[in-house]
Write a structure and sequence with these properties.
Number of domains: 3
CATH topology of the largest domain: Rossmann fold
Largest sheet: 3 strands, parallel
CATH class of the largest domain: Alpha Beta
Number of strands: 5
Order of helices and strands: HHHEHEHEHEHE
Shape: extended
Structural class: mainly alpha
Helix content: 40-55%
Distance between the termini: 40 Å
CATH superfamily of the largest domain: NAD(P)-binding Rossmann-like Domain
Strand content: 5-15%
Number of helices: 7
Amino acid sequence: MTPASWIMRLWKHCANALVNSSKARRVQEGESPEVIAWIFGIGRTAIYRWLAGYRRGGWGALKANPLFGRPPKLDGKKLGLYGFGAAAHTVAQVAKWQGRTVFAFTRPGDVAAQSFARSLGATWAGGSDQDGLDFLRLFPEIGIVTKTPRYPLSQANQALADLRAGRFEGAAVLVP
């Protein structure tokens, strides 16, 4: 198993446990199980099963079952960076200095970014379309919010001025 697939497997496993407890919590707060099932595209019986588990053992009962195979060692020594741009190339160097192992996920085929990541100490650099899609599909389930104000390409200078002045949160996007 490659480091990338191991990290994605662990990410999905942890995210699913978080999402399951989130769904059960929303029902506990008064939302209809049928509505929650429809929103997340799951069977209504799954919601009732999670609620029964919660009633038997509290939130701890909704934790994911252990992964099969050798248990992952989460000792804080490994860091996966999704995207290798402005912030990640700095974080990678600090992490390497701290003695951590760095894995850099880049766009598939982006040999320049992969080479750059390895030159800054990344143990592995690469990417696949499927890893990226799997990762991004979790965003709405987990509740990850990204803020990307759009600026027409003709207003690039305004976007830079707004960035310098702190007039937006997140990362601006220039569109043609």
